[in-house]
UniProtKB/TrEMBL annotation, chain A:
Pfam families: NQR2_RnfD_RnfE. It catalyses: a ubiquinone + n Na(+)(in) + NADH + H(+) = a ubiquinol + n Na(+)(out) + NAD(+). InterPro entries: NqrB (IPR010966), NqrB/RnfD (IPR004338). It comes from Polaribacter vadi. It is an enzyme of class 7 (translocase). The lineage of its organism: Bacteria, Pseudomonadati, Bacteroidota, Flavobacteriia, Flavobacteriales. Signal peptide: none annotated. Its EC number is 7.2.1.1. The chain crosses the membrane at residues 55-73, 101-127, 147-168, 180-198, 250-275, 282-302, 322-340, 352-370, 376-396. This is Na(+)-translocating NADH-quinone reductase subunit B.
Automatic annotation (TrEMBL), chain B:
It catalyses: a ubiquinone + n Na(+)(in) + NADH + H(+) = a ubiquinol + n Na(+)(out) + NAD(+). Residues 5-98 form the NqrA N-terminal barrel-sandwich hybrid domain. The lineage of its organism: Bacteria, Pseudomonadati, Bacteroidota, Flavobacteriia, Flavobacteriales. Keywords: Ion transport, NAD, Sodium, Sodium transport, Translocase, Transport, Ubiquinone. This is Na(+)-translocating NADH-quinone reductase subunit A. InterPro entries: NqrA (IPR008703), NQRA_2nd (IPR056148), NqrA_C_domain (IPR022615), NQRA_N (IPR056147). It comes from Polaribacter vadi. The gene is nqrA.
């Protein structure tokens, strides 16, 4: 008997029982279901939610692969830097090699496994308890989570955060499609507030920087953003990998940071793929970038006008040329993969422009004014998640008013 | 002043099995049936009991809410069976047809010399009133409310729709008489929206306003025309008719006979010879598709693939339908169907689907849902195929949680289920849009009147 027939028999056997969603999830993963239309349209378009989610995962794979090599590269570069040797990154020279892969895979793949393992387990449990199908939302969340955390985050912390994120961030609202906040960012926010020493500072962004602290082999694990926030000048950071980081390195991603957010070129390519496949909203991505640039320009204006001096603690990040905000930190990653979450974002086309713009704008504002924890992108997106329904409300009221006006014109 | 309507948002679904322009006369079926469910929202009261002899045009039942609205028999014969369902709901009234059809004579009339009331009562008496539908609610028109305008769609852009330039050919006289009668029904304007090919049939017809429509489906939907020409506000009513039904009304005035003989298109890949047939509405499906369609693994639809109704061989042709479609059933599993590249299905997205590369290619789509039912997740894709000034997802959600104020404010008065056929087709979450809309409209009608 074929696999198809076997699975079909299992599905029929467990139909209506508690375990049916679990069997169905495995079945529909392997085979498109045999469901046919009843009433309504007799034909349906080719894509379903699984296909849509799959496209986002495909767009994230390059960031993950780069993240794996980068984790190893930053580890060895930091060891070199501690000895006073500043590396020049070269993609096919010292970057894509076996040593980097081994270290990267050893640190990053467990994050992926824990993220998917714990998250899907929670989803399956909820599906069985509530008797609904296992929904696809976590396929993307599970991939996003390892990409937005530091490499060395302890796995138990990640597990706790994933459970919190899936249960409190999503399931209590009714599951995929019903959540108010972006689940991946809810997980990150939980980590950020519950375990702040593992989510910020100048150690956690490079493999082993934390564990070597205070030893003779100590290495630095700072990000470019963190250095700017401390008003540091990169070339002067002699014992840090950052001393050798230039703008091209920031663009290609050869710098410390969360696992998957450093390579801007890959994020841009992933974003273009998502826009091309019509899975992500180009309106949100574009307006978020415009919003970030606008805020950056305002801050540059403040510096140029001489309103603050280099003694100010805001000077370092305010004087970063406005466009460079896009190549440091995770503004681009947030704009492309996080802000475009259709469930927690604005749903109307006009609303998407406003929503995206404010995300970019507020991200840079938090970045500059919150120098202790300069990465404000996830906070900005979560904040706008909360406001997205309000934005949509006013956009829709515009439409309703137009209809009312028509009525008044008739009766006048 | 005529106004040309050109829409950009929408989607032409091109399928295999377009009807070839030849017409066959289908011999008379032995059994015909009229199904009250074809007339949404009425409560039928029987006039012709089992065993009664009826003529074509003679009323079989009427609407309990308005006794003037009669529903006539399409053929002459004997009422053999009144099929009832749960709570004695009338499902169908079956008639054994005579060998030659005898018509009730309603007398030849000249609409131009009749008053508005006379035309109305003639339509009541002859059973032609059910052809007049109304918005809001997409039900048979309430004759007590004056419409602000009447909209007639003479353009059909649905998948595999019959070519009106072929089916209207030679029926200019009926068309003229029918439109003349309809202009008597309103003090407002009668808007006729025609596709580019059908324009010539309407030249020289006075009293109506002609509009040329172009663009992808739903350019031919009457809901699109209303929205673009004169949208409905709260408290207003417009009436709508299909051009095929105007022909029946025209013939009534010219000959005094109620004749439901229609030229319908047999379409879809499961027909060995898709073409046109002339048949009387209510005929047995088996007789209409006899020896022409593949019967195993086939979905037969009375109407088009977007808004038609699934029928079995022993069912009957719908009262308003001008098309029968037969497509393959898709009740099979597809290995990794959710993530491999798709070349044989249509999609508006480019998520490893490639129909956008070949806009003129014809597809043989089956009835598989291509995925499971989910909550609304993806946004912005309905808007691509929805040309009305309405937020489709927000309206659907309001219809689902039944907030009457929101249903009103977001455009509930302007829509019919068929306006949401394309959004249902492209829906990634496989939500039943037309069902949601139909149930919501029924609720609005019940609560708001």
């Amino acid at each position: 008997m074929s696999l198809k027939q076997n699975l079909h028999n299992l599905k029929e056997k467990y139909k209506g029982t508690k375990m049916a969603p679990a069997f169905n999830a495995i079945h529909t993963f392997l085979y498109l279901p045999n469901e046919v239309t009843h009433g309504g349209t007799h034909i349906k378009a080719a894509d379903d939610l699984k296909r849509t989610m799959n496209i986002v995962i495909m767009a994230l794979i390059p960031c993950l692969l780069f993240g794996i090599f980068n984790a190893g590269y930053q580890h060895y570069a930091a060891i070199d830097a501690a000895k006073g040797v500043i590396r020049e990154a070269s993609l096919f020279g010292n970057f894509i090699n076996w040593d980097n892969f081994v270290v990267g895979a050893w640190t990053v793949l467990p994050l992926v496994l824990v993220s998917y393992g714990v998250g899907l387990l929670v989803e399956f449990i909820f599906a069985v308890i509530k008797g609904h199908e296992v929904e696809e939302g976590y396929l993307v969340t599970g991939m996003l989570v390892p990409l937005i955390v530091p490499v060395d985050i302890p796995l138990w912390m990640l597990s706790v955060a994933v459970i919190f994120g899936v249960v409190i961030g999503k399931e209590v609202f009714g599951g995929t499609g019903m959540n108010i906040l972006n689940p991946a960012l809810t997980i990150r926010a939980f980590l950020f507030f519950a375990y702040p020493t593992w989510m910020s500072g100048d150690k956690v962004w490079v493999h082993e920087a934390v564990s070597r602290t205070g030893t003779a082999d100590a290495i630095s694990g700072e990000t470019v953003l963190g250095a700017y926030a401390q008003n540091s000048n990169l070339p002067e950071l002699g014992n840090s990998v950052l001393a050798g980081v230039d703008k091209m390195d920031m663009f290609f991603g050869f710098m410390p940071g969360s696992v998957g957010e450093t390579s801007k070129i890959l994020i841009i390519l992933g974003g273009l793929f998502l826009i091309y496949t019509k899975v992500a909203s180009w309106r949100i991505i574009l307006s978020a970038i415009v919003g970030a640039l606008t805020m950056g320009l305002i801050f540059n204006g403040v510096v140029n006008a001489g309103w603050i001096t280099d003694t100010s603690k805001f000077f370092g990040l305010m004087s970063v040329p406005f466009w460079q905000h896009l190549i440091i930190g995770s503004v681009l990653f947030g704009a492309v993969y996080m802000a475009t979450d259709p469930v927690s974002g604005s749903q109307t086309n006009k609303g998407k422009w406003i929503y995206g713009f404010l995300i970019g704008f507020i991200s840079i504002m938090i970045r500059v004014f919150n120098p202790a924890y300069p990465e404000g992108v996830f906070l900005a997106i979560l904040l706008m998640n909360v406001f997205a329904p309000t934005i949509d409300h006013y956009v829709i009221q515009g439409n309703v008013k137009r209809r009312m006006k028509r009525l008044k014109a008739k009766t006048a | 002043m005529s106004k040309d309507i050109r829409i950009k948002k929408g989607l032409d679904i091109k399928l295999v099995g377009e009807a070839e322009k030849t017409t066959t006369n289908i011999p008379l079926s032995s059994v015909y049936a009229v199904k009250p469910e074809d007339f949404h929202g009425i409560t039928p009261k029987l006039l012709a009991k089992e065993g009664a002899n009826v003529k074509a045009g003679q009323a079989l039942f009427y609407d309990k809410n308005d006794e003037r609205i009669l529903f006539p028999s399409p053929v002459s014969g004997t009422v053999t069976e009144v099929l009832r369902g749960a709570r004695r709901k009338i499902l169908a009234i079956k008639i054994n047809a005579d060998a030659t059809i005898e018509h009730t004579d309603f007398g030849v009339k000249k609409p131009s010399s009749m008053s508005s009331e006379d035309v109305k009562s003639h339509l009541f008496l002859s059973g032609c009133w059910p052809f007049v539908k109304q918005r809001p609610y997409d039900v048979i028109a309430n004759p007590n409310q004056a419409p602000k305008a009447i909209f007639i769609s003479a353009s059909n852009t649905a998948p595999l729709a019959p070519d009106l330039s072929y089916t209207l050919k030679g029926r200019e006289l009926e068309l003229k008489a029918g439109l003349e009668a309809i202009t008597k029904l309103t003090e407002g304007k009668v808007h006729v929206a025609v596709g580019k090919n059908e324009g010539s049939f309407f030249q020289g017809i006075s009293g109506v306003e002609l509009h040329t429509v172009s663009g992808p489906h739903p350019a031919g939907n009457v809901g699109t025309h209303i929205a673009k020409i004169n949208p409905i506000n709260k408290g207003e009513v417009v009436w709508t008719l299909k051009i095929e039904d105007v022909l029946v009304i025209g013939e009534l005035f010219l000959t005094g006979r109620f004749n439901l003989t229609r030229t319908i298109a047999l379409t879809g890949s499961q027909f060995s010879k898709p073409h046109y047939v002339t048949v009387i509405a209510g005929a047995t499906i088996a007789d209409v598709i006899a020896k022409n369609a593949e019967t195993t693994g086939t979905r037969v639809i009375s109407g088009n693939v977007l808004s038609g109704k699934e029928v079995k061989e022993n069912d009957f042709l719908g009262y308003y339908d001008n098309q029968i479609t037969a497509i393959p059933e898709g009740d099979d599993y597809e290995f990794f169907g959710w993530n491999k590249p798709v070349f044989n299905k249509i999609s508006t997205s480019r998520a490893l689907t490639f129909s956008w590369l070949t806009p003129n290619k014809k597809y043989d789509l089956d009835t598989n849902t291509n995925g499971e039912h989910r909550a609304f997740v993806v946004t912005g894709n309905y808007e691509e195929v929805f040309p009305l000034d309405i937020y489709p997802m927000q309206l659907l959600k309001a219809f689902m949680y039944k907030d009457l104020d929101e249903m009103e404010a977001l455009g509930g008065y302007e829509i019919a289920p068929e306006d949401f056929a394309l959004t249902e087709f492209v829906c990634v979450s496989k939500q039943p849009h037309q069902k949601i809309i139909r149930e919501g409209l029924d609720l609005m009608r019940q609560e708001l009147g």
